[in-house]
Amino acid sequence: MCLVTVCFSTFAAFASDIQLKGEMTQGSLIRGQVPVGNQVWLNDKPIKVSPDGYFAFGFGRDEKLSHELKWSDNQGTEHLQLLQLQARTYAIQKIEGIPSKYVSPPKKVSERIKLDNRQVGKARTLNDERTDFFQDFIWPAAGPISGVYGSQRVFNGTPKRPHFGVDVAAPTGTSVYAPANGIVTLFVPDMYYSGGTMIIDHGHGVSSTFLHLSKGHVEAGTIVKQGDLVAEIGATGRATGPHLDWRINWFKERLDPALLVPKR
């Protein structure tokens, strides 16, 4: 059995030709490849491996720092890798001017909110065979960064859930492009909190979500290529101004999109 410890890293290759890319930190998507026929487990839970050896997993905002990655090669030999994550600290972002109905929504919209959540949840359960997640992602929109992943949100003085995306500020109508290849699994123009909402699945549970859109150019079921025009920025839902809220998920784990693209 092999035992290796890895800390903060963007690319690493280990025994038996396993390769990992991604930052070993909270909020990170880790992508990997093993030889054909190998199996992979994270903390003893099996990870989906494609026929050509690609796989992915992610660590949430407040994930514990120590994890075990195990893989079995074609001879049946098991290898164990200790993954040591870097802890992150998160900013507090105070936002004023939010309409009260978005801070404390009236009971009459509760069913609408539940429906929104069910639709988003269903789209994020897809475990597609695609391996588009292994691409180098690009920024889906141009503009200054106005909100970052993990920050504690305080709306009108009331603490709310952390922010799980990266915000790109730009005028309404600014183009939104697919950050990687994928298939559109959801577009709803008027969700209560997130307004115009689109989800693109990149395979193996990895998906991009775009919030507050003013317009969608593709519908569910559309296969898109990296750089395709998919939507336009808006200020729909709970927003104080036009911007794109871009999110990355690995199933239910909310990850930091900024770790997948060139720093700005």
Parts with pLDDT < 50 across at least 5 consecutive residues: 1-11
> Structural class of the helix and strand makeup?
mainly beta
Task: Write down the Rg.
Answer: 19 Å
What percent of residues are in strands?
Answer: 35-45%
Number of separate strands: 22
Number of helices: 2
- Main beta-sheet annotation: 10 strands, antiparallel
Helix-strand pattern = EEEEEEEEEEHHEEEEEEEEEEEE
Measured distance between first and last alpha carbons: 41 Å
Shape: globular
**Helical residue percent band:** under 10%
Mean pLDDT: 90
What does this structure look like?
The strands form 4 sheets. Strands 11, 14, 15, 16, 17, 18, 19, 20, 21 and 22 form a 10-stranded antiparallel beta sheet that branches. The protein has a 5-stranded mixed beta sheet with strand order 1-9-8-5-6, with no helix packed on it. A 4-stranded antiparallel beta sheet has the order 2-3-4-7, with no helix packed on it. The chain is globular and about 60 Å long. It is mainly beta and 264 residues long. The chain has 2 helices and 22 strands. Helices cover 7% and strands 42% of the residues.
SSE inventory with pairings:
Layout: E1 3-6, E2 11-13, E3 19-21, E4 29-33, E5 39-42, E6 45-47, E7 54-58, E8 66-72, E9 78-84, E10 92-95, H1 100-103, H2 110-123, E11 145-147, E12 152-155, E13 158-162, E14 166-169, E15 175-177, E16 182-191, E17 195-203, E18 206-216, E19 223-224, E20 229-233, E21 243-250, E22 253-255
